[in-house]
Specification:
With 151 residues, the chain is an alpha+beta fold. It has one helix and eleven strands, in the order H-E-E-E-E-E-E-E-E-E-E-E. The strands form two sheets. The protein has a seven-stranded antiparallel sheet with strand order 1-2-11-10-5-4-3, with no helix packed on it. A hairpin with a 5-residue loop joins strand 4 and strand 5.
Length: 151
């Protein structure tokens, strides 16, 4: 004879599984899986501009280093004196792109972008949005001009 479960027991068991699974997922720190560390020492400047203190972000000490300034913004050191802020939202369907080596890759549909946000492989047709940055070597800060979109 086939094993049978009542509707009530099925719902109780399923609800327990959802609660247990949710608790387990909530305890995981997803930031530990990110490719790039979260920026520290970020403050607001005039308007919506953001200021990042280099002294609190060791990954920006070297050329090629990067930090996530927010959920949708990454700051990359291009040279000793230049930085680039890139919006990490795919221009195709709005997925979060991931930094993989020397390019951004969209995990949803496979679009690829250079570190400067230029499309190298579709289906995306538009580049990632980038923002002007101002490096102040005396203060050890980088200001991201949020209203001055380059793309």
């Amino acid at each position: 004879m086939a094993w049978k479960i009542s509707r009530r027991d099925f719902i109780k068991t399923s609800a327990f599984g959802v609660v247990a699974g949710s608790s387990a997922l909530a305890s995981i720190n997803l930031k530990t899986f990110a490719n790039s560390p979260e920026a520290k020492g970020v403050s607001k400047a005039s308007g919506d501009d953001m200021v990042v203190k280099l002294s609190e972000n060791a990954s920006l000490d070297k050329v090629g280093g990067s930090v996530k300034v927010s959920d949708e913004l990454m700051l990359i050191r291009n040279s000793e004196t230049t930085f680039l802020a890139v919006r990490t939202i795919c221009s195709h369907k709005g997925c979060d792109v991931e930094l993989e080596g020397n390019k951004f890759v969209c995990p949803c549909h496979g679009s690829e972008y250079t570190l400067e946000g230029k499309v190298t492989e579709g289906p995306a047709k538009k580049d990632l949005k980038t923002f002007e940055t101002i490096f102040d070597s005396d203060k050890g800060t980088v200001t991201i001009k949020m209203d001055a979109k380059q793309n």
